[in-house]
Design a protein that fits this description.
It is built from 3 helices and 11 strands. With 159 residues, it is α+β, with helices and mostly antiparallel strands. It has 2 domains: 60 residues, no CATH class; 83 residues, OB fold (Dihydrolipoamide Acetyltransferase, E2P). α1 runs parallel beside α2. It starts with a helix and ends with a strand.
Length: 159
């Protein structure tokens, strides 16, 4: 696990409603906890005589207080005029199949049941998120390359 992956993991965890996460991979044990609105990070690396400065930087950055995003609170309180498509997993939201291509859908587009709306990348695996019904894209709640959390609103599909 490299520093970039750890930073992405920290960002996703920070933006999620989860209070605890533990990952063991390649001899690294990462534990994240958010008690009393503060997250604590413990990174246990294999025993070596060399200290990994990147791991030390990540621990120091992760000790900052967690702030609640006002936009996510507003999003949950807005009335819904259609069916909400939620993220089935934590990952990076991609609105298009590649940076050079146009987005799968935009607000106002008509969609068919099963049509791909976006991709979510988690642990280097791409998952297609599809429309649950025929309709029109009323709202897109995530932006390209946002880290989305489990059950976060992604789209509103209306009549």
């Amino acid at each position: 696990m490299d520093v970039k992956e750890i930073k992405e993991l920290l960002k996703a965890f920070d933006e999620s409603d989860s209070s605890y996460l533990r990952i063991k991979q390649d001899g690294v044990d990462i534990r994240l906890r958010k008690p009393d609105d503060v997250k604590q990070v413990v990174v246990a690396a294999p025993q070596t005589s060399v200290v990994n400065p990147a791991a030390v930087q990540v621990e120091a950055a992760a000790a900052e207080p967690v702030s609640t995003s006002e936009s996510s609170v507003e999003e949950k309180q807005q009335p819904v005029d259609g069916e909400i498509v939620k993220a089935p997993l934590v990952g990076v939201f991609y609105s298009a199949p590649s940076p050079e291509e146009k987005p799968y859908v935009q607000v106002g587009d008509s969609v068919k049941e099963g049509q791909v709306l976006c991709l979510i990348e988690a642990m280097k695996m791409m998952s297609e998120i599809t429309s649950p019904k025929d309709g029109v894209v009323k709202e897109i709640y995530a932006k390209n390359q946002d880290i989305v959390e489990f059950e976060q609103n992604l789209f509103c599909i209306g009549e």
